[in-house]
Design goal:
45% of the residues lie in helices and 15% in strands. The chain is built from ten helices and eight strands. The strands form three sheets. A four-stranded parallel β-sheet has the order 3-2-1-8. The chain has a two-stranded parallel sheet with strand order 4-5. Helix 2 packs across helix 3.
Length: 207
């Protein structure tokens, strides 16, 4: 099973911000115990690269890098063990560097022009970000009409109260969100609390 199929199988991708790489160990336990062994670690902090490494070293968590803006960050993320790379927008340089490394690229695209540009780069699954302010499920359904073979991973404004609206769309492969991995709880190493939130997200995605 390839990386995209695994993400689609999980249906939900936790988007994590780690301020201390040492917090990644307890986070990994919580994700696995909660039944959602996948994480998108954002490159928003200095701890991101090492945190990816800590999660990747477990061997049972599918870990990727988020908020990747440059080819250099792709190099660092993949070197640390990232299996997929997520960007807020569409960057030819980032997509091409992912191709050189043989890792999945999920660039951001919210307009027909951006989706078409992604297709020209060989990308057929895109991050729909920020979903909440870009038209939400209705916008994805509208884009899916002319781009029938494109899949979307909406992130930004997705939470427990609306994830089913997204997941019920055939064009949505998975959703991304941070509600089950709150930054404060990650920093507090609240394994039990995060496990409970993760398990709830899994249950909601399966309903």
């Amino acid at each position: 099973m390839d990386v995209l199929d695994r993400l689609a199988g999980h249906r939900v991708v936790p988007v994590v911000v780690l301020d201390d790489a040492e917090d990644a160990a307890s986070l990994g336990r919580a994700l696995v115990d909660g039944g959602l062994p996948v994480a998108e670690v954002t490159f928003r902090t200095a701890a991101a690269e090492r945190a990816i490494g800590v999660l990747a070293e477990r061997g049972d968590v599918l870990v990727g890098a988020g908020t990747v803006l440059t080819p250099g960050q792709v190099d660092r993320a993949v070197g640390a063990g990232a299996r997929f790379v997520v960007s807020p927008g569409l960057s030819r340089a980032v997509v091409e560097r992912c191709g050189e490394h043989g890792v999945l690229a999920l660039p951001g695209a919210v307009t027909a022009t951006e989706v078409q540009a992604a297709l020209e780069l060989g990308v057929s699954t895109v991050k729909f970000f920020p979903a909440g302010t870009s038209g939400g499920p209705a916008a994805i359904a509208a884009l899916a009409a002319p781009f029938g073979h494109v899949r979307f991973v909406p992130t930004g404004g997705v939470g427990p109260e609306n994830l089913r609206e997204y997941l019920d769309l055939p064009a949505v492969a998975a959703v991304g969100g941070s509600w089950m991995v709150p930054r404060a709880r990650v920093a507090a190493r609240d394994t039990a609390g995060i496990t409970e939130l993760v398990a709830d997200a899994v249950a909601r995605a399966r309903d």
